[in-house]
Amino acid sequence: MKKVSLTVIFFFYVFLSFGQSGRVQIAFLGVFHMGETPDYVKGGFDDLLSAERQNQVQEVVDALAKFKPDKIFVENTPDTQPYWNNVYKNYLNGFKPKEKSSEFNEIFQIGIKLAKKINNPNGVTCVNYVQPDLNIGMRIARNKIDTLLTFFSHELERKRPSYDDYFAKNPSVNRAFKTYLANYENWKKLPFKEHLINLNSEQSISTLHYFNITGWMDTNTNGFGAEFTSKEYFRNTKILQNILTSVSPYDRKLLVIIGGGHVQILKDMIKTHPYFEVVDIKTILEK
To answer: Out of the domains of life, which is the source (predicted)?
Structure first.
């Protein structure tokens, strides 16, 4: 007899206990990675640790604290959970991370600080999924599907053009990318809360989705556009799976702090789920 997954039990529990009117609220805070990142363009702040910026960060943390999330999900792979648990433990004892990449990271600047502010016993929960072709967070294959996926991913990456070629051969994507970067440079000059509100606008999130994911299919210059797009969708389904399996029957509010390019897909998927309600992050930040 097959075992019933804990996730199914959780959702059945929620259905019986709360019904559709008592859905779990989930908010997505899209960010540009502030610390170490493999992204094509880094979007952090050079003055993040200045007194003025730190006051602005605290303003964002205070606004998010009013939402009172039961869990704070962040974009690091689950194998890094012990590290961030230790960062949280040290921060509760008054110590900041020694590594600058960690101190600059949104996981610390927003997630860890928020967890401390609301006395969250869990700190942050790592839910990212890294593609098998990348070195960061690589896993030993657990089964034949993992082995085949790794092979497929490596073979596909051999076909991927450089980002410079990708933008050069896709005029629409290139235009959207350059326009977005110009807007982002203006947003960086704003107070941190206003910066995040602009970054999480519907237009911003959909544009990030386009040139990061679906834009690969526009001209399909090397014949693998759909495969590149589907690979990014797969990554996000794995992230969502990590989120779902981390939710407990006692969670009523969830916050996901993640790169802005992930938000559109994750929102679209979770909106169809009968036991979750997506909460607009702008509403939370402006309270």
So the answer is: Bacteria
